[in-house]
Design a protein that fits this description.
Number of domains: 2
Shape: elongated
Catalytic activity: ATP + (deoxyribonucleotide)n-3'-hydroxyl + 5'-phospho-(deoxyribonucleotide)m = (deoxyribonucleotide)n+m + AMP + diphosphate
Structural class: alpha+beta
Number of helices: 7
Family: Belongs to the ATP-dependent DNA ligase family.
Keywords: Ligase
Largest sheet: 6 strands, mixed
Pfam families: DNA_ligase_A_C, DNA_ligase_A_M
EC number: 6.5.1.1
């Protein structure tokens, strides 16, 4: 492979803001795997956000990208899986599997799509120093004949349209809006774009925690909600505490520590076999391959208000943010019924937008 922009390339990133900034290009924020595609003739490389190759996990995409992209180009975009008219991140993560036979079976059962939103190189020309407006125009022309599962990400310069997308597209599984300055040059691994994400709050049971990697202070709190059967289900974690706050939390939660976790609602997590079929705290990551099953069980008596953006199935899609303790709430009152559900929206409508 010999391209003007060679792999690995870390993608340009966005920093969070509260409001949609004016005077920019606006796109939906896709909830998938960020991927930079390098094509040089028959060679295709799908690079992840961290630079690790994704090519072997999405063989069906490598084939269609070789058909639809120009012979020599570098394209930034998102790998997604569409199921039931919306994005399905759980099915996407299933593809990161060591067994090639399983990857290929899933490629047939739940094929992935690629949504392109930036162009880094074309032919022998690097476009890293070209302004966004030029890169977008050339990407649009390049993908004028694109057909599923390859898509050009919808974009607009109309702030009112972006505001409407922000409200509507969540129902299709997207999680916000990305705003890009029109004169922005492409700078790998730099946070020069802006993202606006949904934020809601929920009252959740704090039923355990993980230690922080630096030592005996709290790393993240394990959160639970009760389902219709009265079972406490793990829904995610909240983190991003200062080091001082981590120390304070360890002291605050010490009276709730259980010397014997056999009576804990999540006692099965102590068995490694339980991690083979469910996403549990400490479950081994397919990205790292490292197993860390350690967690501290707490009596499920404390309630915290946390902020989250949206749900993926029955869990918080991303790490929640701690807001405050809720001593006025009982753990049993923390149920799924409190969660706000976005109005459904067909992903096909998103992909057909201008």
């Amino acid at each position: 492979m010999d391209l003007p922009v060679m792999p690995p390339v870390k993608p340009m990133l966005a920093k969070s803001v509260k409001k949609i900034p004016p005077g920019m290009q606006y796109e939906a924020k896709w909830d998938g795997f960020r991927a930079i595609v390098h094509r040089d003739g028959d060679e295709i490389v799908l690079g992840s956000r961290t630079g690790k190759p994704l090519t072997r996990y999405f063989p069906e995409l490598a084939a269609v990208l070789a058909e639809q992209l120009p012979p020599r180009c570098v394209v930034d975009g998102e790998i997604v899986i569409v199921h039931g008219g919306r994005l399905d991140f759980d099915r996407l993560t299933e593809r990161i599997h060591p067994a090639d036979s399983r990857v290929r079976m899933l490629a047939e059962r739940t094929p992935a799509s690629f949504v392109a939103f930036d162009l880094l190189a074309l032919g022998d020309e690097s476009l890293l120093d070209a302004p966004l407006a030029e890169r977008r125009a050339r990407l649009t022309a390049m993908l004028a004949q694109a057909r599923p599962p390859v898509h050009l990400a919808p974009a607009t310069r109309d702030e009112s349209v972006a505001a409407r997308w922000f409200e509507q597209y969540e129902g299709a599984g997207l999680d916000g809006i990305v705003a890009k300055p029109l004169d922005l040059r492409y700078r790998p691994d730099a946070r020069l774009m802006f993202k606006v994400k949904h934020e809601r709050t929920a009252d959740a049971v704090v039923a355990g925690y993980r230690w922080h990697k630096s030592g005996p202070v709290v790393g993240s709190l394990l959160l639970g909600l009760y389902d219709d059967r009265g079972t406490l289900q793990h829904v995610g974690v909240c983190a991003a505490f200062s080091m001082k706050r981590r120390e304070e939390l360890a002291a605050e939660l010490e009276p709730l520590r259980m010397a014997d976790a056999s009576e804990h609602p999540w006692a099965a997590w102590a068995r490694e076999s339980a991690h083979e079929t469910a996403r549990l705290p400490g479950a081994p990551s397919r990205w790292s391959g490292k197993k860390d099953l350690s967690w501290v069980a707490l009596r499920p008596e404390r309630v915290a208000e946390v902020a989250y953006d949206h749900m993926e199935g029955d869990r918080f899609r991303h790490t929640a943010q701690f807001r405050r303790w809720r001593p006025d709430r009982t753990p049993e009152s923390c149920t799924y019924a409190q969660l706000e559900e976005p109005v459904g929206y067909d992903l096909a409508e998103v992909l057909s937008a201008p």
